[in-house]
Every structure is written in C-alpha cells, then in structure tokens.
Predict the 3D structure of the following.
Amino acid sequence: MNFLTRLRRRFMLTCEDVNEFLVDYFDGRLDESMRERFERHIDSCESCQAFIDQYEKTMAFLREDRVEEEVPEELVERTLIFLREELDS
Amino acid sequence: MNEQAIIAGDRKAFEEMVREESSRLYHVILRIVKDKDEAESIMQETFLQAYKSMDSFRGDSKLSTWLIGIGINLARSSRRKTSRYETMGEEDMERLQPSFRMGGYTQEYKPWRPDKTAEKSQRREIIHRAIDKLSDTYREIIILRDIEQLSTSEAAEALDISEGAARVRLHRARQALRALLDDYFGNE
C-alpha cells in the first residue's frame, strides 16, 4: 500500500477499502478509529449496505449449516477397532 | 484431552482423543468427499497417520487443529482421484470477485429477496450446490472457518498457510460464494 493510500484512508474510506476490510471487521480486528470510519462509510453508502447484507447472509447461511450432532457410537467403535488392529499387527 | 500424554504415545489418551474429535473430523471430511463410507475410511486413516507421525507434531497449534489438517489433505487427495465433481478453476473464482472503478463498485447490488431466502431446507440444498462449485482451496477454508466455526488463525494452521493468506482466501471464497448465491437469491 502506498503512502497516499494510507494517508487518504486516515480521513475517508472508499467502497473498495471497506470491501478489503470485511474479514477483519467481522473478526473484530479493526481498531476503534478504523471501525468508526468503516461504519461511517457504510451508513452513507447504499452499495456497501447491499453488498454487506449479501456477504453477511452468506456467512449466516454457512453457520447454520453446521452439523451439531455427534457421529454414531458404532462409527467411533469401528475406528478404535481399526486402530488397534493396525497398531498391534 | 491430555495432549502431553497423547504426544508421549499413550494409547489410552489417544483413544480418548478419537472419541472427542471424531464428530468434527468426520463432518469436515464428509463435506469434502461427499460419501459416508469414504469419509469413515479417511477418518480412520487420519487417526492412524496422526498416531504414527506424532513426532512431526510441532506443537505450535492445537492437536485437534493438526488432526484436521491431516484429514483435509487425505480428503482432498481422495476427492481429486474420484473427480466426480465439476469444480471451478481459479479463473472462474476471479470472475466471481466484485470489481471497482475509482474506489466504487462497478455493479449495483440489492438485498436478497426474503421470499427466496426463507425456506431453510431448500436454501441448504442451494448452498451445498454452490459450495461444491468452489475450487478446492476456497471450499476448504469455507468449511473450516464459516461452517465449523474455527477461528481464522486455527483454519490457517489446519491448512498450513499464514494467517494473512487465510484471511485473503476466506474473503475471496465468501465473495465467490456470495456471487453464486446471488444468481438464485437475487433474481427478480
């Protein structure tokens, strides 16, 4: 990143900057001053609002796809038998 | 889980880890190979390989994360051998990224239609199809970070890449998936 980009980002962010920081934003890694500039941009930018709405929904749909239940006990037992046979042979 | 005992080669402690880690490991592998028997076989092989190569565990990640890394490598090889799935290449992934002009998006985006995103079972089917289209590296980071909810640094460790590279890959993978889902959820 060059000096002018760094300087500009201290005062204002573009949609491209906001896009670049999305992972850090959702991971809670932006410092307070950057997060304020990030959120200020979003508040006044319909394009970013719509894009982030889709990005966030994508993340939410993936999160709810997680399988919470444990695998059957028989599967674990078969694995243990397999390991004992392999390691004791 | 007693990591020290496992690393020292204690079989009982290792079997305890098998009981604790089987579910997550199996689900990660199954999402890649898409076949229950194959997933079980790869999970068994993963534990065996982990036990035999415990000496190579560097200890700079959690043992469970290291285990997932072994499972992912074996599952990836299996998926490539069977090549039953048509996945997109890096060029396709590039086309699914948003483009910018003078710092702004070149395309107009609209929130997704609520009636299209409402039905959960149908949505799940659409999402699975979209994940299957992703290139291997993108699919893997999505599975670890966004589905299994590992932290970004744990996902990086499992994939043996730097955390910075994992963040870039995750962002591009989410954006590719967003674009694929937009074809369905965004249609008027």
